[in-house]
Amino acid sequence: MSSTIWDIAHLGHVEMFTPKLEESTRFFTEILGMYISAETANSVYLRAYDDYEHHTLKLTAHVHAGIGHYAWRVRSDEILQEKAGQIAATPNAIGWTEGDLGHGKSYQFRMPSGHLTEIYFDTEKYQAEGDARSALKNTASKFPARGMNVRRLDHINLLAQDVGTFQEFQLYHVGGRITETIRKDDGEVVGAWFSVNSKSYDLAITQDHVPDMQNRLHHVTYAVNSREEVLLAADIALENGIHIETGPHKHAIQQTFFLYLYEPGGNRVEIANSTARLVLDPDYKTIFWSLKERKKGQAWGLQTVPSFHTHGTPRPEDLI
Amino acid sequence: MSSTIWDIAHLGHVEMFTPKLEESTRFFTEILGMYISAETANSVYLRAYDDYEHHTLKLTAHVHAGIGHYAWRVRSDEILQEKAGQIAATPNAIGWTEGDLGHGKSYQFRMPSGHLTEIYFDTEKYQAEGDARSALKNTASKFPARGMNVRRLDHINLLAQDVGTFQEFQLYHVGGRITETIRKDDGEVVGAWFSVNSKSYDLAITQDHVPDMQNRLHHVTYAVNSREEVLLAADIALENGIHIETGPHKHAIQQTFFLYLYEPGGNRVEIANSTARLVLDPDYKTIFWSLKERKKGQAWGLQTVPSFHTHGTPRPEDLI
Amino acid sequence: MSSTIWDIAHLGHVEMFTPKLEESTRFFTEILGMYISAETANSVYLRAYDDYEHHTLKLTAHVHAGIGHYAWRVRSDEILQEKAGQIAATPNAIGWTEGDLGHGKSYQFRMPSGHLTEIYFDTEKYQAEGDARSALKNTASKFPARGMNVRRLDHINLLAQDVGTFQEFQLYHVGGRITETIRKDDGEVVGAWFSVNSKSYDLAITQDHVPDMQNRLHHVTYAVNSREEVLLAADIALENGIHIETGPHKHAIQQTFFLYLYEPGGNRVEIANSTARLVLDPDYKTIFWSLKERKKGQAWGLQTVPSFHTHGTPRPEDLI
Amino acid sequence: MSSTIWDIAHLGHVEMFTPKLEESTRFFTEILGMYISAETANSVYLRAYDDYEHHTLKLTAHVHAGIGHYAWRVRSDEILQEKAGQIAATPNAIGWTEGDLGHGKSYQFRMPSGHLTEIYFDTEKYQAEGDARSALKNTASKFPARGMNVRRLDHINLLAQDVGTFQEFQLYHVGGRITETIRKDDGEVVGAWFSVNSKSYDLAITQDHVPDMQNRLHHVTYAVNSREEVLLAADIALENGIHIETGPHKHAIQQTFFLYLYEPGGNRVEIANSTARLVLDPDYKTIFWSLKERKKGQAWGLQTVPSFHTHGTPRPEDLI
Fold first, then answer.
1. What is the DSSP string of D96-108?
2. Rounded to an integer, what distance in angstroms lies between the CA atom of residue C114 and that of residue C161?
3. What is the rounded average pLDDT of the residues B184-210?
4. Residue C50 above 80 pLDDT?
């Protein structure tokens, strides 16, 4: 039995590796405006001001940059059990964990690309106390008025040698639908955008142009409330010596208004706004882009910078 | 068997009655920037530039303003059949229709408040031709660059004498979840906001303060891409003699940045932007607002104008 | 010899009295995002990130809120001498000062309304050092990325029992032109907006509705870069318990997009954006507004809140 | 006697040559949202909605694209006489004209770069009638709600073989001050930005990289009210097949948020917003940029596209 589109509620959290834990933490708190939920010996747990869970980002000290794992929150415990049972029958299965700070038991497995993935349902919802409380009951915590004021985790972009097998496993065993995709003339898929709710994507998988690399991260994205705030984020990056790789500009694919930064540990981080775009159509037809269309550049004509195609974490030289 | 939260995909369309069909049509095309899909003897069918269906608004000539019917698109034909079967067993059932321009068969019924409602799945997806096509494949049609440039139908707000029975019928027979609600000290619910997808609401039901009125419309809302565009909409309304009832301002409930206008037929129309807010939590806990909290006014302190509590369509004097 | 329109370069600084110096300082630094230039026993000197002088705001501890003095920077030392000579011949003259932190000698006088005013030319231009430097040479200091990120002092609004005599003295002895004015049916002027450069106003004088009060401050305004940032300022005020008197909304007079706050000392502070409006016409014809026109409310219809007409600092009860 | 900084009020109008008068007119009316003031056999006169004069753009049919002339409005008739007298004594003098549609007598001359320039004072202020009137008395005409909604002429950028002699003539005989400049290591100035009021620039002169070309236009700029509207302008250009050369992005020089388009006749047109930046300091110190600094690209790192350095109108091939 294949997964249904609606089994997964949303991307839950991402564990990001960094060789510079302290500087990366400062980047996410002072520059992005995120809050620290907890700290352990090796990790710092963070959330954006309207993330409703304990954390959406776990920064873990590591010898190199990259991704530790990422997690999907499913819609119910029943779905968790069913999906775990289904994945258990595959060679990709790892097994149950007892959970982590902020969430209960999870079922872990590896995507065909090597990325460590988990699904979970039980979670600790963040309860703001004292000065952290928002004046509005429907906001998870106070608007920070600090740095870029990111609102919530938006999506993750991973790299894979073989986008096709990632895509198959995702659709059959994990869930979601493909809203947009890049296809070569011979039919090979080299990029796919998965949506699990009304957002137009929650995970993107694109081809790794560095041979033999496994399990690489392209970027993690946090959403801000307007395109103007993406522009302000660019001003803030400029003023604080944060490397701007490209942007602000508008993607042709998915229309996202983007800004790509490198955090001090070397990982790419995107600040984005999707305007009022949602994909509400339950039988949305996947949009296909050809490589030729991609060569036109971004929506307004910006040529994609070369590093955008090659930089991922870890870098090849990190692994020697 | 009760409905699940996820049976409905989204609000499909609204039929708005207007005693001034021509002027109302001009309002939605020239001021809001919508496109006409079709016209019949009594009705004009319209869509915003990124509405993916044939229409989201059907303007129908009528002796007075108000709402003809509104429609939910469900996630599949199976769900349509099941849900119709369930509703058929209630006194609210009306029965199947053969559809209308732009969509296939629908099942109609009345909400306890008297509102004519339908559910459907088969739909005609809009295919832009020629100059109506967007330069971006993932946009339903060209950004109009005319008037307020509304992007998509967002939600509807109805009035009911008894919010509680509306709410029960909605949750049990139709679908969705309540994200926010207004409750009197004695526990009576006087306002409820229903969400059927990742948006924080798709339908609001609030108490009709005019006794004995049934089946009234409070407003229909179209979304624009930014709060700045809501401000531009206010400038455009001012310049074109459109009555601004209140706003732009930010709702405390749901945080929507709003502008309320009266279209020439007398119906209230909202132009809104929700920033990057989404409700992704699958077991979101409903937020309760007391009347005392409501008395504080809108988010930034604006006092709600009296007409906002009393004006609905049709007006009592329309029915004499 | 009357003053010419172009003698004055711009509003230089405002000395604001506050009974709560520490809290007021926190408001201007943490909430507005301003920088401290200097502190003395009784005063704190502040500037917005793109104010080019040593300070534009001097907060001075005082038994009550209100305005100490305000200053115009003139275009040259020659103009300073001429203008001082001219004013010296009036009963309003006070005389030369040796200057203050941040600026050289100034000539002081009282406006007919009692407000202590000074003109000066020699000034200490702010030189950002180290981390305070902007990445862009053409910005006075680093974009703060803290709170409301106000950019520069914009204007001041004073109250007078007799707007007409204030206006005459300003035009004849000080400088500038009147861009907009409110006139009663009998011809009495009850509000006037003076511009001394391409901005549409730098000082507003409006009638004090509290009898017998002299020398009162209505508000001081700092500019932000967009209307969206005024909305963000409202969000920040809400989250930090800052009293929002009215707004955000658009003034009919001068079109300014405004937000009125009370700082902890009790003075009204406006956060504003003027979009791309400038008055470049050298023989601009003053625009007259009648009281009837004013009764329509602000641009988009917001009714002016009563306190806006009565609250000024000091308050009558402060003076007993 | 040299000119003073304040003799000129503002850039008055630009005459743009186009080989495609009809298409260029459609571009400025339908895409930019400008209004037609008058039409003659060979020319169309246009203004943006808040331009206060009869026109700021005169489109003239011509065998190739380029600039016919541009005009400065001076602050008074006295200044006009004085300045004309001074220029008359130079080899650059041409002489008095009887004016044109929309303005009275002007004095014409050639800048050392060959550009035909005029100064004038008498002007016909635009008086909106009927539906063209704005709801706000302080706006020259109705906000168009069409296309890019440009507000006012902002500045012009010309090309010269010798920037230094242009600069000398401008400062000595015409007026204004230099706010920013690009200087080679050997001291040669290759770009200069002149300001004549509180705007940070009204005319830019940059080096023509095509040898032997005279009298070329780099671009004409219209201002919109926010950076968000520059982004909307990019969306509109994309949807309407208008060539986007580069942007939206932020200039390091002058900080302008820009979008460069080619109008159908081949001339470059900029849509820009300057946020709340003004240069109010009467003794502002010119900012110098080195070529090395320029190589860093625009403010957020965008590399300048090659055509930006070479494309000007007329093009060399137009003149054969």
1. EE--BTTB--EEE
2. 10
3. 97
4. yes
Contact of A134 with chain C, judged by CB distance below 8 Å, is answered with: yes
pLDDT in tens, C208-229: 999 999 999 999 999 999 999 9
Residue written as tokens 């509807």?
B156
What order do you get walking across the sheet with D43-47 strand by strand? D35-39, D43-47, D57-61, D8-18, D66-74, D116-120, D106-110, D93-97
Tell me how many degrees the CA angle D13-D15-D20 measures, rounded to the nearest 5: 140
SS3 category, D156:
strand
Read off the pLDDT of residues D60-88 as tens digits, 9 standing for 90 and up.
999 999 999 999 999 999 999 999 999 99
Q: Give the C-alpha separation, D246 to B54, whole Å.
A: 36
Q: How many helices (H) and strands (E) does chain D have?
A: 6, 17
In the sheet that holds C43-47, the strands lie side by side as C35-39, C43-47, C57-61, C8-18, C66-74, C116-120, C106-110, C93-97
DSSP characters over C229-293? HHHHHHHHHHHTT--EEEEEEE-SSTT-EEEEEE-TTS-EEEEEE-TT-----TTPPPEEEEHHH
pLDDT recorded at residue A285? 97
Contact D50 C289 (CB under 8 A): no
How buried is B8 (Cβ within 10 angstroms: 0-12 exposed, 13-18 middle, 19+ buried)?
buried
Helices C227-239 and B227-239 meet at what angle, rounded to 10?
120
| Complex ipTM value | 0.96
Q: Do D300 and A234 touch (CB under 8 A)?
A: yes
Return residues 230-289 of A near D (CB < 8 Å): 231, 234-235, 237-238, 244, 246-250, 257
What is the spatial order of strands in the sheet that B116-120 belongs to? Answer: B35-39, B43-47, B57-61, B8-18, B66-74, B116-120, B106-110, B93-97
Contact (CB<8Å) C135/A229: no
Residue B297's pLDDT is what? Answer: 86
- The domains found in chain C, sorted by start residue, are 8-122+150-319 (3.10.180.10)
DSSP strands (E only) in D167-276: 177-183, 189-195, 203-207, 216-223, 243-250, 257-262, 268-273
Cα–Cα distance measured from residue B222 to residue C225, given in angstroms and rounded to the nearest whole number: 28
Burial class (CB in 10 A: 0-12, 13-18, 19+), B259: buried
Confidence band of B274 (pLDDT split at 50, 70, 90): very high
Query: Residue D261 corresponds to which tokens in the numbers above?
Result: 């388009």
Query: Alpha-carbon dihedral of residues A217, A223, A224, A225, nearest 10 degrees?
Result: 160
Flag residues of chain A having pLDDT under 50: 1-2
- By C-alpha distance, which of D268, D253, D271, D251 is closest to D308? D268
For residue A199, the chain B residues in CB contact (below 8 A) are 198, 278
* Predicted confidence band of residue C3 (pLDDT cuts 50, 70, 90): low
Give chains near A: 3+ CB pairs under 8 A: B, C, D
Three-point CA angle B141, B145, B149, nearest 5°? 75
Secondary structure of residue D288 in the 3-state scheme: strand
Sheet holding A216-223, edge to edge: A243-250, A257-262, A268-273, A216-223, A152-160, A203-207, A189-195, A177-183, A287-290
Across the interface, whether the CB atoms of B235 and D143 are under 8 A apart is answered: yes
Per the CB < 8 A criterion, the answer to whether C12 and C120 are in contact is yes
**Could you tell me the maximum CA-CA distance found in chain B, to the nearest angstrom?**
58
User: How many other C-beta atoms are found inside a 10 Å radius of the C-beta of residue C207?
Assistant: 19
Pairing of strands D57-61, D8-18: parallel
Tell me if chain D has a CB within 8 Å of the CB of C189: no
Q: Tell me the pLDDT tens digit for each residue of B28-77.
A: 999 999 999 999 999 999 999 999 999 999 999 999 999 999 999 999 99
Nearest to C263 by CA among C69, C18, C46, C57: C18
Cβ contact B240–D145 (<8 Å): yes
| Residues D177/D285, Cβ–Cβ less than 8 Å | no
Helix (H) or strand (E) holding A18: strand A8-18
